């Protein structure tokens, strides 16, 4: 039955509501677990939607991120192919992915992130204060969801508070494959690169307690450090990976909880559910963006289908997260679901480096809002919520609330 | 319950430490898992089981001694 769809589906798939999954997911998981899709570039790829298949491919060393290979499918129409094969990705690839990751991992351990928590709580309280002061209805995505992760990353990189807004704008431009033109994206990348280069010079002269200061002198087990280009790429990668993903997830999580208000009320009554509720929001998110592309380096078999060398596969973690064979009642949001082995952060050796930080930011936003604004509710019907344009990260354009 | 960890598989996500800090820790220099208690007692076993289930690298193995 596989790859049976003779005419490739247009990818990304579309969905009716901003919080609803595409109608095709269930059908594809059931009948066509390896589906032909046509990407925005016009190139073809194979889409995976079952939990076991997605999980296997994400951790299989034969499926790599070498999406700049000659015969790999291009994702978007823009010349550079966007964030998945930007010069940043190439610079980091040359640093040796695993080596680079190991130098960074220590900044994102559970202990480190726990130590950041009081600061994150204080930032969230401040953003909520400012939102309350301006009165309702308010767009909580713009007031809280969007700024918080940038503030956290700026802190981590030792960037002064006054430059946070510029960081937010650069991040927004670099991650959008469709909203901005190639010239604008290139300009944002150049400006951001120049800023980071100057910032690194400053840190070299006057090191702080931040991540970049430490990386300037850090070496791996073989005594090798990172080049300046790799250091700039690191700053860029952390912003791109940590900002818009978390910002949008904050908005979507709140929308999922408020669109059926009994969910919110259950958390108000029992805030000890925050941890599992955040995991369930990550699993239940039907609008996470593109998914994870992989390049097949050696023939592999997935769902009894041969994927020949040179195939580009797209792993839909969100479709996998709705797989009934793994999650009982997959189409229900169950706030105390446990265990919840969702794939929102990927799986295997390349799974999200910053997942503890993302979890802590999401948990903090929820804890602070439950404490400060238990009467929070949507200010528009859920049907009026709209998805953001752009391709890589899915989210809501705005989330109007009152309290 | 007997716990073993595979340092080579570990990707340093830190989920296990968040779930069961009495049983798991991470090395300060590279975030790789450190097993603090290879035979955790009953009140800890539920969170250890959850940590094993959600480990993104499948680096935690549980067995009965």
Automatic annotation (TrEMBL), chain A:
InterPro entries: Cyt_P450 (IPR001128), Cyt_P450_B (IPR002397), Cyt_P450_CS (IPR017972), Cyt_P450_sf (IPR036396). GO terms for molecular function: heme binding; iron ion binding; monooxygenase activity; oxidoreductase activity, acting on paired donors, with incorporation or reduction of molecular oxygen. Keywords: Heme, Iron, Metal-binding, Monooxygenase, Oxidoreductase. The keyword Metal-binding applies. The keyword Heme applies. Belongs to the cytochrome P450 family. This is Cytochrome P450.
Automatic annotation (TrEMBL), chain B:
Residues 1-29 form the 4Fe-4S ferredoxin-type domain. Keywords: 3Fe-4S, Electron transport, Iron, Iron-sulfur, Metal-binding, Transport. Transmembrane segments: none annotated. Its cofactor is [3Fe-4S] cluster. InterPro entries: 3Fe4S_ferredoxin, 4Fe4S_Fe-S-bd, Fe-S_cluster_ET. PROSITE patterns: 4FE4S_FER_2. The keyword Glycosyltransferase does not apply. Pfam families: Fer4_13. It comes from the Bacteria. SUPFAM superfamilies: 4Fe-4S ferredoxins. One of its GO terms (molecular function) is 3 iron, 4 sulfur cluster binding. Ferredoxins are iron-sulfur proteins that transfer electrons in a wide variety of metabolic reactions. This is Ferredoxin. It comes from Streptomyces scopuliridis RB72.
